[in-house]
Design a protein that fits this description.
The chain has about 325 residues and is mainly beta. The protein has two domains: about 130 residues, no CATH class; about 160 residues, no CATH class. Strands 11, 12, 13, 14, 15, 16, 17, 18, 19, 20, 21, 22 and 23 form a 13-stranded mixed β-sheet that branches. Strands 1, 3, 4, 6, 7 and 8 form a six-stranded antiparallel β-sheet that branches. Strands 5-2-9-10 form a four-stranded mixed β-sheet. The relative contact order is 0.14. The N terminus is likely disordered.
Length: about 325
């Protein structure tokens, strides 16, 4: 087994490796190579330095600039096991050959399996990633914000016996990742169950949220089951405003082979009726939170029971 410190070292080499490929005249006339979570690049065109896409809260998307022409990428993977400090990786790297075009964007795709049953490929993603929206600049300083605008109530409704857990995070390119692993323990427990299947929480101005896992309970509290988000797209609520009641939607969970699938609908009138009956002073502050579908860098191979969006990940 290889210690997790190797991932940190590889991430530190990412900027150096990318800079080594860059030309003096900047990015004009070059191609860009990015990488999926968990993918490892042991070398390009004989250059033995490597980068690791990592996964989860440690994920950083590769951005390696290449000159136009033929390139050979030595592909591997490096993935941590749930609850362990070690990682497992491929036994033998594989050479991926592709022809890079100036101005195009490519991504190293990774599909994990058992033992040597893994796949990697280089895909042209220019059509979907050439205009990646910039990550939002959250308002980190709240000293100049009026007190009543510093926080909002989050409102979400779930299926019977199900409770969604949301975590704070940040956006990078097409990805949403939790801010740090400590939130896995501290964040979801703060949600407050109310009547009619609604749950509430508080969120600070400028924060971003997405579902991370779901509690399902059958019978006693000791029969609680966790399903974790992984390898999917999910609604991400970015740079949230303060002073509002932010309705995230109604989350519906359905058992399917291999885990649980969720869908999101909106019933604003029902949410308004809930507030009128339970928090009448907040009715006028109700708004539907804006969201967009982003990917999660969480890998199912590091999780327990899986939770995936009904909308397939691209």
């Amino acid at each position: 087994m290889v210690r997790i410190e190797s991932v940190c070292l590889a991430l530190a080499l990412l900027a150096w490796h990318a800079a080594a490929f860059a030309q003096d005249n900047g990015s004009a006339g070059q191609a860009m190579l990015r990488c999926d979570p968990g993918s490892r690049i042991d070398g390009i065109d004989g250059d033995g330095r490597y980068v690791v896409g990592s996964y989860g809260s440690g994920f950083n998307d590769c951005e390696i600039r290449l000159a136009p022409g033929k390139h050979v990428v030595k592909a591997c993977y490096e993935v941590g096991t749930a609850g362990a400090t070690d990682v497992y990786k491929c036994d033998q790297p594989r050479d991926l050959t592709f022809e890079a075009s100036a101005g195009s964007i490519y991504r190293m795709r990774l599909k994990l399996g058992r033992a040597d049953k893994w796949e990697a490929s280089i895909e042209d993603v220019t059509a979907t990633e050439s205009n990646v929206p910039a990550s939002p600049t959250a308002n980190k300083s709240r000293k100049d914000i009026p007190k009543d605008q510093r926080k909002s109530m989050v409102l979400v409704r779930a299926s019977e016996r199900d409770e969604p857990a949301f975590l704070k995070g940040e956006v990078q390119h097409l990805w949403f990742k939790m801010r740090d692993a400590r939130q896995v323990l501290s964040g979801p427990s703060k949600m407050h169950g109310e009547k009619d299947g609604y749950f509430t929480d508080k969120v600070a101005n400028g924060e971003s949220l997405a579902i991370y896992y779901m509690f399902h309970q059958e019978g006693s509290a000791f029969s609680r089951e966790f399903s974790y988000v992984c390898a999917t797209e999910l609604p991400v609520y970015e740079d949230l405003p303060g002073g509002k009641v932010l309705y995230l939607g109604d989350y519906h969970f359905e058992r399917v082979p291999g885990g649980t699938r969720f869908t999101v609908t909106h019933d604003v009138e029902a949410a308004r009726n809930f507030l009128q009956a339970n928090h009448p002073e907040l009715v006028d502050k109700l708004v539907v939170a804006d969201w967009r579908m982003l990917r999660t860098p969480e890998l199912c191979e590091t999780k327990g029971p899986t939770l995936r969006s009904a909308a397939p990940a691209r």
